[in-house]
Amino acid sequence: MMLKGNGTLKKRLFCLYAQLRDNMRSQWNRVLPFGELLVDRWEKARFCGFGADTSIYDSSVVMGDVKVGDHVWIGPFTLLDGSGATLRIGNNCTISSGVHIYTHDTVDNCVSGGMCEKETAAVSIGDNSYIGPMAIIEKGVELGKHSIVGANSFVNRCYPDYAIIAGTPARQIGHVVIDLDGKVNRIYTKNSNE
């Protein structure tokens, strides 16, 4: 069903889009989807109950019990799934573009023809942790503080503070050392490329 004035509304929306797009490009040299131009990322984070100065892109999906600390950047096209159990993300974290974090899976339920229940477990990401682009974190994972997860990694185990984790499935390939002056050193395990 066509609404009266639909063509006019479409023209007005396009004019708004063009203006917002031009402003974004001139100010930040970015071209973003229309929804990202309209939505205030910090307001969305406040609406979700996340901590101070946290932002989350409009294209990000939040489900269930998700708790996020202060000063967290949650990039575009992320999935934060707290539908199975609590998902906690600490303070000062980066959740890069395309990251998926799950608190449940239905693998056994599916392959058993529904005879098995879905499996659920909480997930915790420690303060000051960096989750690289397109990483997937499975139910039950606990990552310690100051951790780094490499891009495209599948994390299905828990890791301690200061761990550098990468791969599919992920494994610890090193650790982070922070000097007294705040300089970050990444120390990679010998033979970590095997």
Structure notes:
The chain is α/β, with parallel strands linked by helices and 194 residues long. The protein has two domains: 1-38; 41-188, UDP N-Acetylglucosamine Acyltransferase, domain 1 (3 Solenoid). 21% of the residues lie in helices and 33% in strands. The protein contains four helices and 17 strands. An eight-stranded mixed beta sheet has the order 1-3-5-10-13-15-16-17. Strands 2, 4, 6, 9, 11, 12 and 14 form a seven-stranded parallel beta sheet that branches. It is globular.
Decide which structural class fits the backbone.
Answer: alpha/beta
Number of strands: 17
Radius of gyration, in angstroms, nearest whole number: 20 Å
What is the CATH C level class of the largest domain, in words?
Mainly Beta
Terminal residue distance: 61 Å
Helix content estimate: 10-25%
Characterize this entry briefly.
The protein has 194 residues and is of the alpha/beta class. 21% of the residues lie in helices and 33% in strands.
Topology:
Layout: H1 6-28, H2 34-38, H3 41-47, E1 55-56, E2 61-68, E3 73-74, E4 79-89, E5 94-95, E6 100-102, E7 104-105, H4 107-111, E8 119-120, E9 123-125, E10 130-131, E11 136-137, E12 142-143, E13 148-149, E14 154-155, E15 163-167, E16 170-178, E17 184-188
Parallel strand pairs: 1-3, 2-4, 3-5, 4-6, 4-9, 5-10, 6-11, 9-12, 10-13, 11-14, 13-15
Antiparallel strand pairs: 7-8, 15-16, 16-17
Question: What attributes does this structure have?
Answer:
single chain; seven-stranded parallel beta sheet; UDP N-Acetylglucosamine Acyltransferase, domain 1; 2 domains; alpha/beta; globular; 33% strand; 21% helix; 194 residues; eight-stranded mixed beta sheet; 4 helices
